[in-house]
Request: fold
Amino acid sequence: MPHYTLLLDAEANGEAQTIECSAANPWLALEKSRKAIGRHAVELREGERSFGTFKPCFPQDRVWEISPSRSRVPTA
Reply:
């Protein structure tokens, strides 16, 4: 099963929090980590590959706001 890292925006103390998650696909990794993410924006990564920045939309709580313009894929 693929392993994903979720990078949460830095808190007031300036330190970013990471969440490690294994899931069948990137979207399930977001859903599995929803409680830990809370209202934070989070960057979803698989190794060096970034899937972009996501933020839970409230009050729906089931829809993710996606910022693909911030996504990046490393080049060789």
Observations:
- The longest strand covers residues 49-57.
